[in-house]
Automatic annotation (TrEMBL):
It comes from Sulfuracidifex tepidarius. InterPro entries: Cyt_c_oxase-like_su1_dom, Cyt_c_oxase-like_su1_sf, Cyt_C_Oxase_1, Cyt_c_Oxase_su1_BS, Heme-copper_oxidase_sub1. GO terms for molecular function: cytochrome-c oxidase activity; heme binding. This is Cytochrome c oxidase polypeptide 1. It holds the Pfam family COX1. One of its GO terms (cellular component) is membrane. Its main location: membrane. SUPFAM superfamilies: Cytochrome c oxidase subunit I-like (SSF81442).
């Protein structure tokens, strides 16, 4: 009988603890969905980025399955191209703006800047992300770049959307316009709020300087995409009145479409300038270079979009300008590499054994190896050969997998520590995170170079029916990707486990324990843990009374 009472007491303790955990989770979820400060907004955009990363990753692995399966039927084609478009839209319209704003918000937090209009930025997050999700549910099938005329075609031979037709297709483009307009508005609000909360006569740190500068770039260039999408809305709803001029539409698109590839990398440059000196154990080699470079990168990124039109019949003098201006922008990136490289080489021993130190070092190295491959692309003779091949795919995916995803992971790891000051990664956890970073990076660098070689040999991108000579290349890409994916999962999951552990309540007192007297526990919760900082005193006697203090 006494044992049964003891067992029931333990069950009731478990039930109460579970109830407290659920309450804590719901409070936490509400706090994340409706943040009240800059750090909370950072979490919201960070989690949005991770959600889109999972979506695009799932689409990518499905695409790779179709690419390497030998017994594909013609019916697989539409599924493959829909997955391809979902992958692209999730990346460029979901992950990129959310990740960029997450990094910018965190840079503001690290420089004691605040978001004044928290509710507005929160609302814009939900408008942007829900709108994109609604557009994706239609099964888009024309590539993330949405070139006309296929992007507004809806007939028996081709449908721009698998599920949305007629006027509903125009509604889908209206959702996309909401997505891009909300991203632009949120970026401009961050610029204004940074100005409003900057302390007089105090220079913001280099991290925030890059973050705020490129929030302005986002706010200026993203409206061009909004205009292009609204043009499609009118063309679908008023086809007899509104016609789409393909060249003008492409100009609008690429005014946004080139800077968008810098939305995340350039704010991450600010992170590299901020963190690498910490782990190199010395000040930045030249902060003056770093701050002057902002103007070169920000202005240059908005002027060289024409190099995406190399296959168009452009005038010779314009082609010359494309090459020169692109290389000038590349010199700004080179200056970043030189500045950070000298910081590391003249430092007091770089601390690569710390997971944050390792992530930012790999982000820098990844940008170098991915960026070098881009240098030949603006050269007219070379561009015509590799313009639409896996060479280009290899280049930008190397930058994505290293600078963007590994650098983003570094910011995420530091965000965990900022959100829970008592968090200290243990030795085993640090080793697991380091192993995960390397397990991710090495195989995906291999994937990037495999793509590059295959593209140099002539493998066209966005094509499911490719020559048999490229089968081994495709198989190797998929094999290396399968090896690398668990690496990032290992790093992030280990960090999250340490974060949860640091905030989990512990039994700080056992007041009684015997078969004849059911136990009484004092459970203390850290902020963010099960009970959000309250102490819960479980005193279970025969009457099962629970008191809270």
């Amino acid at each position: 009988m006494e044992r049964n009472q003891l067992f029931l007491s333990y069950v009731k303790i478990g039930i109460r603890a579970t109830q407290e955990a659920v309450k804590g989770f719901l409070l936490k979820a509400k706090g994340v969905a409706r943040p009240k400060d800059t750090l909370g907004l950072t979490w919201l955009y960070m989690l949005g980025s991770i959600a889109w990363l999972i979506t695009l990753g799932t689409a990518a692995m499905n695409m790779r399955t179709y690419l390497v399966y030998n017994s594909n039927s013609p019916a697989v084609g539409p599924v493959y191209y829909t997955a391809l478009t979902i992958h692209g839209w999730s990346a460029m319209l979901g992950l990129v703006p959310d990740a960029a704003l997450a990094v910018i918000l965190y840079s503001m937090y690290k420089s004691d800047l605040s978001v004044v209009h928290v509710r507005a930025v929160t609302s814009l997050f939900w408008i942007a992300n829900i709108s994109l999700a609604l557009a994706l549910f239609g099964g888009p099938d024309m590539g993330w770049y949405m070139y006309p005329p296929l992007a507004i075609t809806d007939n028996a031979a081709f449908q721009a959307f698998r599920l949305y037709h007629g006027a509903v297709m125009g509604l889908a483009y209206l959702f996309l316009a909401f997505n891009s307009a909300a991203g632009a508005a949120a970026s401009l609000i961050l610029v204004v709020d940074s100005y409003l909360t900057k302390k007089k006569d105090q220079k913001i740190n280099i991290f925030a300087a890059y973050g705020v500068a490129f929030a302005l770039v986002i706010g200026v260039t993203l409206p061009a995409l909004t205009a292009a999408e609204l043009w499609y809305v009118l063309a679908v709803w008023l086809p007899s009145i509104v016609k789409v001029n393909p060249l003008l539409w492409v100009i609008l698109f690429w005014f946004y479409g080139h800077p968008v590839v810098y939305y995340v990398p350039f704010p991450l440059f600010g992170a590299l300038y901020y963190y690498i000196p910490i782990y190199a154990r010395r000040p930045l080699f030249s902060e003056k270079w770093a701050r002057l470079n902002i103007f070169l990168l920000a202005i240059g990124s908005m002027l060289i979009w024409v190099h995406h039109l190399q296959t168009f019949p452009l005038p010779t003098d314009l082609r010359a300008w494309i090459t020169v201006s692109t290389l000038v922008l590349a010199s700004g990136s080179g200056l970043t590499v030189l500045n950070l490289g000298l910081t590391i080489l003249t430092g007091n021993g770089y601390n690569y054994k710390d997971p944050l130190g390792m992530t930012f070092l790999i982000a820098l190295i990844g940008f170098i190896i991915g960026g070098v491959q881009a240098l030949p692309l603006p050269i007219n003779l070379i561009n015509g050969v590799v313009h639409n091949t896996y060479y280009v795919v290899g280049h930008f995916h190397l930058v994505i997998w290293t600078l963007i995803l590994v650098g983003f992971t570094g910011v995420f790891l530091d965000l965990l520590k900022a959100s829970r000051p008592n968090l200290e990664y243990g030795r085993k956890s640090r080793n697991l995170m380091l192993a995960g970073i390397l397990l991710w990076t090495i195989p995906f660098v291999g994937v990037g170079y495999t793509m590059t070689v295959a593209g140099y040999l002539g493998l066209l991108r966005r094509v499911i029916a490719y020559p048999p000579m490229f089968t081994d290349y495709m198989q190797l890409m998929s094999f290396l990707a399968e090896i690398g994916i668990p690496g990032l999962v290992l790093t992030i999951s280990t960090a999250i486990a340490e974060y949860v552990k640091a905030g989990t309540p512990v039994i700080s007192k056992v007041t009684s324990f015997s078969p004849s007297q059911p136990p009484s526990f004092m459970i203390e919760g850290n902020k963010g843990g099960i009970n959000m900082g309250r102490k819960v005193n479980f005193r279970l006697n025969t009457g099962d009374k629970i008191g809270k203090s």
